[in-house]
Amino acid sequence: MGQKINPLGFRLGTTQGHHSIWFAQPKNYSEGLEEDQKIRNYIKNYVQKNMRISSGIEGIARIEIQKRIDLIQIIIYMGFPKLLIERRPRGIEELQINLQKELNCVNRKLNIAITKIAKPYGNSNILAEFIAGQLKIEFHFTK
Hints:
5 helices, alpha/beta, four-stranded mixed β-sheet, 143 residues
């Protein structure tokens, strides 16, 4: 029986990068992880509420978080960013303000950027969301 390995951990540094880039002292490390998880969950919930499509695709491939002493930079890689921006033109600013309130980061600036993925259906997360959405609406795949 072979040893099982996490595919992301195996590829880190060679073909893929980390999803969070920051440093913390060992006693504060768990707080940083919890803050990252809060950020990711809040963004996914916000996009899910404000971006309703018939197939149910959110289009988020990954969320990258870079933390510095005075700045939190969040890069959202999306397959279909136009759908979020068209529905609510000031949606990104609203997300930024609400996320700052949620995190209670008064002394740190929050910066959110959205990046479009060239081939959205080539990403496994977006493709899985698309297939799940098709199964929810009972898409008939056999004829």
